[in-house]
Amino acid sequence: MAPKYDPKWFVPPKSVQKAAETGLNQRKKTGKGGLTPAQASKAGSKGGSIGSGVQRAVNLKNGDKVSPRTIKMMSAFFSRHEKNKNSKNPDGSPGPGRVAWNLWGGDAGKRWADSVKRKMERADEKAKKK
Fold first, then answer.
1. CB 41 within 8 A of CB 84
2. pLDDT, position 66
């Protein structure tokens, strides 16, 4: 029996790897990054995405294959936080929302996660019909 999902879908493209690396560099440069737990809560984040943002970025930067569950989490993250992606600090540098966005793969990560999620949904529908 063939797998329902193509394993190649779950390998982050270079554009996603680069955005995650940018987020890690932004975080390192400022000594902080992403959203604080209070900011994330106010922005609608579910528990766990704060600490997982850095680990997610490391995995994405390294081109590590992600799971179907992670794709769903990424798609949900981007849906909740798109309103924060252009945040800036008073000095004009990327704000916490932008850093968090980049840690999760940036605009390329959103396009990729949403695309893979749609492919998974189509594969699930096709599997149901069999």
1. no
2. 96
